[in-house]
Amino acid sequence: MNRKRPVCDQLLQERAKATFQTLELTYLLDGDEEKTKRRKELEKLFHDDPQFQDEIPTVYLSHEEAYENALSKTLKIYQKALDLSDPREILTVADAILHDATPVHVHFVMFVPALMGHANEEQQAKWLPDALTMRIIGSYAQTELGHGTFIRGLETTATYDETTQEFVLETPKLSSIKWWPGSLGKTANHAVVMAKLWTKGECYGIHPFMVQLRDLNTHQPLPGINVGEIGPKMGLRSADNGFLKLDKVRIPRDNMLMKNAQVTPDGTYIKPRSDKLNYGTMVFVRVLLLDMLAFNISRAVTIATRYSAIRRQSEIVAGAGETQILDYQAQRYKLFPLIGLCHVLRGMFTILMEMYKQANTDLERGVLDTLPELHAISSGLKALCSDQASKGIEVCRLACGGHGFMLISGLPRLYATTVAACTYEGENTVLYLQTSRFLLKCLTGQHKLGQHSQLKFLLNPVASPVQPFNKQLYGLEGASHLVQYYAAAAHRELYFVEAKLKRLQAEGLTSDNAWNSSQVDLCRASHACIQYYLAKNYVEWVAQNKISPELRTVLAQICQLYLLQGIYENLGRFLQVGLKTEDITSMSDLITRLLDDIRPNAVPLVDSFDLHDMVLSSALGAYDGQVYERMYECALQSPLNKKQVVDAYGKYLEPLFKSQL
Amino acid sequence: MNRKRPVCDQLLQERAKATFQTLELTYLLDGDEEKTKRRKELEKLFHDDPQFQDEIPTVYLSHEEAYENALSKTLKIYQKALDLSDPREILTVADAILHDATPVHVHFVMFVPALMGHANEEQQAKWLPDALTMRIIGSYAQTELGHGTFIRGLETTATYDETTQEFVLETPKLSSIKWWPGSLGKTANHAVVMAKLWTKGECYGIHPFMVQLRDLNTHQPLPGINVGEIGPKMGLRSADNGFLKLDKVRIPRDNMLMKNAQVTPDGTYIKPRSDKLNYGTMVFVRVLLLDMLAFNISRAVTIATRYSAIRRQSEIVAGAGETQILDYQAQRYKLFPLIGLCHVLRGMFTILMEMYKQANTDLERGVLDTLPELHAISSGLKALCSDQASKGIEVCRLACGGHGFMLISGLPRLYATTVAACTYEGENTVLYLQTSRFLLKCLTGQHKLGQHSQLKFLLNPVASPVQPFNKQLYGLEGASHLVQYYAAAAHRELYFVEAKLKRLQAEGLTSDNAWNSSQVDLCRASHACIQYYLAKNYVEWVAQNKISPELRTVLAQICQLYLLQGIYENLGRFLQVGLKTEDITSMSDLITRLLDDIRPNAVPLVDSFDLHDMVLSSALGAYDGQVYERMYECALQSPLNKKQVVDAYGKYLEPLFKSQL
Q1: Chain A CB contacts of B584 below 8 Å
Q2: How large is the ipTM?
Q3: Is the overall model pTM greater than 0.90, yes or no?
Q4: Chain A contact present for B82, CB below 8 A
Q5: B 235-294 near A (Cβ less than 8 A)
Q6: Mind listing the domains of chain B with CATH numbers?
Q7: pLDDT top residue among B108 and A438
Q8: What is the per-residue DSSP string for B88-136?
Q9: Which of A516, B170, B284, B634 is the most exposed place for a label (fewest CB within 10 A)?
Q10: Mean pLDDT across the stretch A21-43?
């Protein structure tokens, strides 16, 4: 699929239209020139290596083949990358090559960090070296068949038996079976199992335990352990998500990870000093997710934009010849704001990573109010951004018409991988509700906003009046002008639901029931607050980056369009806070203008993401634009085309055709 | 997956809460009691027949296996159903059993109808008997690699050679290759090929030609024919969508289907009398699509609602025990309006089918204004309903949390099958634009609305004033009260874009360019008009059906909720036409009340769709509610679990683990 071909004329022409230097934007999106260079080196190391080239598109592989292919490549990647310093780099490359979570993703992202975070020094010395060199591969078994987001509901037990100084692990019911952990099905020989700790007849809640799952010589499951794969999913085929049934499995006392809580040999439970650290890990994972979402939506919008420059269909002016579909306004309105989504996600990721580091520094200095706020915001951002990114990818896919339905477009897999993030790492609705709970507690003073919080305006019961909509403002000024509407809408939605909660309680509902009866509006409130947060930081990111005026002009157009679409598609929220019905006409015209102005830079803008063809893995989106050639070549490799006359003919069709001769 | 199990207590309790007779609703949704009985007979005939039971879930099959399985079952179904009178019945059963388009779907839905519609008597006598008994299986080859919705752009040519009295068929370029036709890849031995007719140096546009593709004895492609399958897609795995390259393929003159247009032996072209008939077929297909959409969304909402009654997660009142997730307001708000979507789609299908029959009668009587209007409305309805249904299915899938991501939930396949309808049979954006073009032409008098048209109020340049929002109105009265807002919004959006078109033309744009620069608002306008159309007909359907008061109460609650959500999620549109900011509070409270009132009937409402477990094919949604048992059993059958230690261990993991011992 990645064979070198000449670039087609249409894309050459598109690229000639750029009003900015694509490389400058690439540096900005990567972080800086150094980071781009480093990425290119890795690409050279991996993407051009023949052992990572697939003979046929990986989407054509069966479930088993896909797993095996991914495992084989992953191990080669790690072998080749032993001298690379940053494991995140390796993961990024591996994910990009595999287009999927690798079968050892959880090992490096959850098992090893769990050891670092929960194992004491002695335990780390025992397991960590083997884990880092993959002599043991571990999973992280928390979610159960009957329990996900609500951790306290987990049912697996670890009961201390002081006579043998062992823990007895047990999944007492069908619904307690561990379900979903990546790598658990077929790859891992160890797992950190989260279970309810019982000792001396008391339950102390969920704690981590190291459990060896498989014999190190034969890879067969150990006695009492029933382990397997949970079956194929909509996406993430290469990760062998698994199940684990534990039938009175005994592990030594010191297999409980004891950096924090401990159980002494006589069964005495010793409480952990603090649980703030877990909090931090959850935030960190959500920050990383923004990066993944930015990566995925940039892949989708690159594919759809390039394809839309190639594809010609119908005519704008009758008889004037068929039009590149990128010239239809409806198509531009679908795609260009999504370029903005990539930018805001990338910018937000950088900002949040800084905040995360700051919050950790604060924590060490005893400043405790940064992390809860960051946690609330990162929860809401995870929900809003995974919603927007997955919906955006589906918009890209549908914008490619029927061809986007084919696996070789690369888009169905991107959608599946991305939409998975709406339910994992905290289900989105639950996260929206968490964020609004935090914000409402800020209003009543139960939580305190940090010194530099961007949400302090919410504490003022009276919203600041908005300035009238000014249709003359364009670009950065125009984008900046729109942020006030987002702020006012956030304020209104939050106080709207606060009033509803009070009203329901005044009518006699308990606060719990009032809360449940307001969930729809609570989700809307946190959505509005997070949307504001995103808008504000987006505009600042565009304004404050050190870039050329040419580039800033283009970025500001995209930013203004993104913010305008956010209003135009949700007018109700903004008509309530000072936007006038008459302004809608001006907005419509401004959108029309921006869609025209951005058009010449459309392909250069997606080129700036600088995504290698192997990373795109799409017959529609390659750099050379040879769409139809690639589609035809891929079709010839389809499994059904291995034989001209398929076996089903002899079995079913031939008897039918000939019986009636 | 469909083994009989006892019904779980939770669903027994849910079913005991019903305030109406589920069977009465089943009759209504099927059409009448007779139709329900007939459906049950067919179910007995097919669903209980062991030859249609799968040993493992079909989602676990490879692409080849899935095709072979579907082909085998389809042929058995047709054999068993030879005595059934209505082929649509057979197709419905087949689709329900296969959860996919069958490999002979296109044969019966397009190839045979094409023969009936385009072949003259002689030609029908020659091909139709063989087609009906499947001695020949045909495809319908229209779409090309480079052209879809824009028919005039098709590039395949059929050039008449009067010296041999043959047509020479040719796909001159890569982009002209026929691409997508169902059954074309491996199953069909014939195709109706749509090609540009050339004779005596003149081009007469697209016409249908009968082309034999494969040898009837060997099934090998005939000379000049390059045919194959296009490769796996996001869904519809069993349909062997194909490609077809024609290299100077000669066919006799009388293989041109000549019921309408003709070419005489000397190459003279004779025009068809009329092209209205093609128009009718397109409408018919779009009407049938509503039925399919209703079927698919009803499957998804049944699965998600039953699962939500089983699944317990977290607590509403701290310490009071875990809650059925169906008791969370946010979950109800996701699912209950989708029950309404099923109802309105089912009702709309019945109404539109009547209108279609009426339009045909009108046509025969020389009344010509019914069909164009029906065509415009059915285009818009197809777009709006396929959008709503596919998004609704995805809402159901995500409402099941991570488990909805597993193929055995049945939901990923339902989503893929349904979202395909957003791009096939006319891409949705193109259809929205077609509908608005028709409506705008009505405003200027270029089209005439039919005598009984429901859209006549649009012709009045001044909208009727809306009555103030009355929060006291509940149920049917409440739903009826909301329709006026939908009407006013439709009116406003249409005149909004008309004003925009005039403004742009006044600024100097040509009408073509003004049109293109208004596409965003044009889509919004037809969306609003069709949303009104749906709302109005939904309320009438609830009001006019002959049903018990108990049932009408429940249907009216669902209808009011559906219409309220339509407003609540799109407030901007309605705040512009008389809805007040203060009304939003009342709406929120009314939604809260309805979500509570509908709750006891949630499971009975989805039970009324009366979907056989085989039709649902979901581990989460079966009638007995034994969710976790089924999930665990299915997981054990996963392809990766055939061996406890997979081959990849010996190949890749063992060397890794042991090399470092």
Answers
A1: 496, 576
A2: 0.97
A3: yes
A4: no
A5: 235, 240, 243
A6: 110-273 (2.40.110.10), 278-451+462-606 (1.20.140.10)
A7: A438
A8: HHHHHHHHHHHTS--TTHHIIIIIHHHHHHHS-HHHHHHHHHHHHTTSS
A9: B284
A10: 93
